[in-house]
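Help wanted!
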Amino acid sequence: MQTTTPQLAETIGALGLGAADTGAAFEVATGPAWAMLIPMLPLLGAAIMGVCAIMGVRSKLPAWITVGLLGFSAVLAAAMYAWLPENGRAVSVAWEWINVSWGDEPGQTLKANFGFYIDSLTCLWMLFVTLLATLIALYASEYMSHDLGAGYCRFFAAFNLFVFSMACLVMGDNLLLLFLGWEGVGLCSYLLIGYHYKKHSAVFAAKKAFIVNRIGDLGLLLGVFLTFVHFGTLEYKDLFPMVQPYIEAMRQGSISDIPALVQLIPVLLMIGAFGKSAQLPLFVWLPDAMEGPTPVSALIHAATMVTAGVYLIARMYPLFLVSEWALPIVAWVGGLTALVAATIAMAQFDIKRIMAYSTVSQLGFMFCGLAFLSSVGGAFHVVTHAFFKATLFLCCGAVMHGFAGQLDLRKLSGVSFMKGWGIVGIAMLIGCLNLAGFPFTAGYFSKDMILAEAFITPGPGYQFLGVILLLTAGITAYYTFRVFFRVFVGPKHFEPGDELHGHDGHTDDHHEEHGSSSHGANSDHADENGHTPGDHEPLGGSVEERGKKSHADPEHFHPHAPGWAINGVLVTLAILSVLAAALYFFPGADKAHKGWAGGMISGSTAALVVGGEADHPTRLAAFVGAEPEQGTLFGQDPHKIMYYVSGVIGFVGIAIAFALHYAGRKESERSSADNLLQVKPIRTAHRWANAKWYVDELYDFTLRKPLWAASQIFHLIDKLLIDGLVNLVGYLPRALGKGVRPSQSGVLHGYAAAMAGGLAVILLIVLLLSL
Amino acid sequence: MVSTFASMADFLAPAQASFPEGMGSVTLAHYLFVSVAMFTLGLIGFLTRRNLIIMFLCTEMMFQAAGIALIAFSRFYLHHTGQSFVIFVLTVAAAEAALALALVVLLFRGRESLNADQWHSLKG
Amino acid sequence: MPPRLSSPLGWCVAEVITPLILYVAVIIGAVGVWMALPRKRVNPQIIGGLVAAIAGGLVLIGLGIRAREVEGGLPNLYFYVFAAIALGASLRVITHQRPVYAALYFILTILSSAGLYLILAAEFMAFALIIIYAGAILITYLFVIMMATQSPSEEEVDVLAEYDLQAREPLAAVFAGFLILGALSVMIFTGASKLPGEADIRAQAPHPDHMLQLLPRRVERVLQDEGLISGRERIVREARGVLSLDPEARTAVVARTVDLDGDPAGGFIPGSEREVVLPDHLRARNVESLAYDFLNRHPMTIEIAGVVLLMAMLGAVVLSRRQVDIDDERKRQQAERRLRDAEEARL
Amino acid sequence: MSESILHVLILLPIATAAFIVSRPANEAKTVALWGSLISLVLGVVAAFQFDWSNAGAMQPEVSLVPWLPALGLSISVGADGVSMMLVLLTLLLGPICVAASFSSIKHRVKTYYAWLTVMQAAMVGVFIARDILLFYVCFEFTLIPMFVLISIYGSSNRKAAATKFFLYTFTGSILALAGLIYVIWFNATRVPVEAFAGAGEWSFQIDTLRQAAVRMSPTEQGWVFAALLLGFAVKVPLFPVHTWLPLAHTEAPTAGSVILAGVLLKLGTYGLYRFAIPFTPIAAVDFAPFIGVLAVIGIVFAGLICWVQDDVKKLVAYSSVSHLGFCVLGLFALNTMGQSGSVMYMINHGLSTGALFLLIGMVYERYHTRSMRELGGLAAKMPVWSFFMVFFVMASVGLPGLNGFISEFMCLMGTFQSSDTLAGSSIGATPGVLGPVFAILAGTGVVIGAMYLLMMTGKMVWGPLREPKGHDHDNHSELPDDLNAREIAVLTPLAVLCLVLGLFPTPVLKGIEAPVNDTVRWVHEHGGLRLYRDPAPARVTELSPAGVVTPELAAPRAGGER
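Answered by r_m:
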């Protein structure tokens, strides 16, 4: 690996990284006071929801308040973006949060204000967060309509709190406020996943999500400690100037004089990012998080929260660049996660879980984007992915809402041809095209930027990683259209889900176990009431078994089409996903920045290094000078080549899906893919992939059970050993007393004899001594 | 009358005026031996006899043994404190006798028997 | 008195014989006493008594030989008489089965001790012992014994209380006792030589007759009886009322008093002093020196002794106050019941 | 702040108790409540009178009520920033405990409230004592009311729990007394009179003893520190000596548990802060890694035990052991961040764990069971209770935005940065003896904390409703299903405080920072730690028996002097 680092350094040097104008780049203007409103409005909203809950409001009022407030903060975000161009960076402080100082030296004061750091990266993130939040709130107003009253208020309170935390995370001007947002979103995902608290699986999934996030947060916390210990401050405006000398050292290519501690910081921060964005080691919580209502999955587990990890790395990009090992690790973890998640998604039957795994996979792409030094690609993919993944989730939500909780793709077919479901079908198609990377869709452009970089950025095994990503892109295309062809097109057929009679209350006590893919196995903490991880056969079981179980009479059930709110949101989101592609062409301040997203990134800390990526050829020219053979892909400009390659792969994926799942499929149950299963290796591969490569069981076996046994042992040690010793000390005097008691026999002679004997002994001793 | 008394004393033992050369043969050790022997007999009596009164009698004997030793020392050291101390020994013996006998009467009235082994209610 | 070993032969005799005799005597004494203790079986009490007496005699003779070896001259006979009686009687006290006889033997022991006191020139104490001890204390003992000894019913006249027949763990007691005796007597033997010698005693002790200086009236009365001083003559008082009398030289300075009827307090006529030689029989008697020592050195102890006696009296009164007037029949039933309880308790 | 108000703060509760006893039983409740409310108001007034700009110094300047001048005994009171905060915490918990036990205490009401109020006086006495006499008397006196509360008003095997609690803590404090007396003796005999004010004579004043104790030789300091540590460690429950706490908590009545967890455990840590560390700085520095290890074991060990608990009160009790592990870790980080974090921890733990005990008590009053197996899913039946439970669980898990996080972060940060090796290279680190390894291990405690507390919430709050078998639906106790107005009134101030301290900790932090800075500076100068990367002041040289030691102090940094 050693060989590559000089190249890495030289590349950074070549890219003209490092802000030449060190001084000017970092002076920070004081931000507008109203910028603070963006996070404060949702907080106010959460408070209002609390009041509604106390007052027992049973109307849809909470939803309208939330939509209103979030809409207003979206407008403010836009205003902030508009206000931004002329002065780059600004900080507006709400109030002084933590301030501990033990001296006046630079490193002797830890100051963390409730301050908001406004630069282009913040605007980029806040725009799509607030926009999506408003739309999904509107969607949720109808989706959650069947449990108005306390549940409704609780949902929207958590929803508002989530947006507040996300705003703090993104806009925080110091790592501590980021950490507050970080754990805040963790809390809200806990509350929202556990929304249907009557269901054991929901409660269990919520706990699992919170604890796995907490493990990630521990890594982040240690990163924060190390940052303060080394740099003496946590605030961005002081932190980044202090990183510059290390970037200079990196440019000179002398890695050795960057202290090991500094190189360790990004590794720790990365652990936090992986925990929050469900990357390989800590991804087990995201699929189970689908227990929560669909708007939650759409907003939190598809669009906003999971991108927090990407945001962290983008924000702390200077640190990541100075560390020799940080970016390669991110690349490889991202790449492997993408592959693993894609393979699992292929074998799932529950459409929401497929979408969840696809999110994990796409996040892998984003991390690779950042790792391949194209933070522009990563960021742009975040934006496009947010929109089309939200569309896909909301379509699935609409289907689930309409078909009484039915999510199994074998139970549904030809939905878009049913009356009233046209819009959902079209929105789904647009989403799938984007996800699959169909040429000229937004997803296509953003994924290309990442894939192209894979082949030209020098780094340990990046080329091989590029190939993996290409393969994953193909698999993504396949499973996306597998869902589309199985559910939305083909012969019309449907079966009601198990929430049929659920309409009178979203879940009632005797809600029989859904038995879907929630294997109950989990990475760290199996639920105590015994979800044995043995349940491997594909979910849902055969039709007869399903029929018997669902009490309602299937004949006269008729799905109810989504209302105006859901359709409206789906239409807007579909349009936005399409428009997102335009952003790639929308000319930013100057052509060099590769579209709008590039412009936004270049102005922020994330770009401080990537700047100077002016136009493609000059960069290439710089390369040509350095290492001609490694810089190009098949001799041409990598991006141009990637357009064709990824387009072809997209087509291949869609074609396979079409062949297997649409051509000649008579009913929803079987498809030509099933006869593929007869082939032994494919069947076992399918079984393993369906069971999530047994990662949950692995964690359960290696972490949870030994920890549980250790705790039992500790409990025993505490009860017997330590407590035992204390009781022993209590028992000793009594035992001693019992021993001595018989000597007091009460008989006179006894005492006399004792005295005489004593006297005799004494005299003898004196006698012996005196001889 | 006094002189006859004095002469009898002289008969029994030459007056103290002259140092006891005459009786040189009986040394202090003799008296001490007698005293120790009497003390031992008293002790054995106290240990072996069950009858309460005899036990107290034996204690009296031990007192008496002490008295002999004291007088012997007083005589051989020509110092009268020994003798005056015997008076105190007597007072203690008297006090002890009075109390012990009152106790014995009480105990006897309680149990109609003098056997020392019957009273062991002070068992621990 | 510490033996002065004059001849080597004397040394070996003293060294070899006496300790050996002592040990042998002690063992024989132990065996004797053990046999003498009261037992239910046919008890060779008398033989035991004899053996013990022999042992006692052996020791005393041994002491005698040792003394004679050292001193020369016949041992003072009376000491041995009284010692033998004392030890014999005390042996009988502990071995006799009938309590009354034990008390009577104890009186005999007291009398023989009084004899020993007399030999030791402590006349006052001898008689005090007889009067107080034998006279008062032991008589009370006899009262209590009489009262407490169960009156035997008509048919068995001289049945003895069961607890008087059998001695209790005789072997252990005797062993312990004679162990102490052996140890003490060896100590006496070895220690005796370490006691201060005759010269030291004489040096420390004041002249036996120094008491005379403190007894003005007695000395002056004897002198008047002998006619050595005239009516108005008194012995000259030195500081604090001490008579100017020299016990060594046995002379006293006499002078005529100013006061006509002979009261020395008024002072003396100077120049009328003259020497008077004291008559031979004028000696300080034991009672006087004892009284002086008793009252002068231990005033506080006397007070305490008084308090002790008062307490004893009070105690006795309190203890015997509860007059439980229950008739004999119920008393006996009570006793039987208690005996039965005691038996069950012991089982 | 005048001395008289402090005296009143001690005497008022005693007067209230006397008044309670004199009044008939049915009035005991109200009298106790009003008494504690008045003392709370007085506390707040005192806080306003307190000169926060100079929080470091003991206020009032001089306060000496001579009691036995011959022996140098006097009652002197005074409070600095830290004591003021802890007094306010005690006075706040007072009325809350009284109000919380209205419905649960039915028999022997007068004794209950009388003892509860008297304990208030003792606890306030400990925090504002400026001389060892008052400190130790109050320190010991707190045991008696607690013993009475547990042994009379506890649940099943309360007798054993009460006796074990009393004897265990009592033996501990005897050792502490031994250490303190040695220092007093040392000051009276070994320190020459002209060394400093009050030297050489029999004085019990904490300030004089502090200056004297520093002159002890390292071996003497080691022994005195060991004695003080043992004494206070039992009270803190540091790891090996903690077994009395779960027993005492499960058996204590609700209010007893709240007071025990809220304030009594803080006596131990306050003792360590005020006596163990400043009196014997060299030994504190030498022992710090050892105690750090104990604290970390405590955190992880007790945390894991919580995870396997079935009785919810025992779970919260063990969680107190784990939480106070952080507190002690912060204390022995020997830097401002760590120590002010641990003082904050004392306050926060008092609020959040006190509230948790109140919540458990409310459930116990309704269902008379504490087993998580029989009882669960209360969200359906008791939504308000569930809201508070989730809120306070999040507070004690250390969710940022609530108070738990501030103290937990500062303690871990203090531990992380307090290492000499780091201090050499990084500007953010401070000289100290713990280090990143301790912080990482203690950090796992944060995850374990989330595990067991969420396990508890998952069982008690979420999930389907499970009620104990014997519980018939028309629940016989007169309490409504969900919380009644009184219970909500008891919980709301705690909740508001948790939120306010979480978002606006600066006033409290600034109040604590000044005294903590002085202590840290004192420890660093006399403990041989390099302060602010100056050249290490020579360790206080061996005290020759006759002579006195003049510790060569490195000139404190010009800028650093506050």
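OP: Thanks! One thing I noticed: Chain C has twelve helices and four strands.
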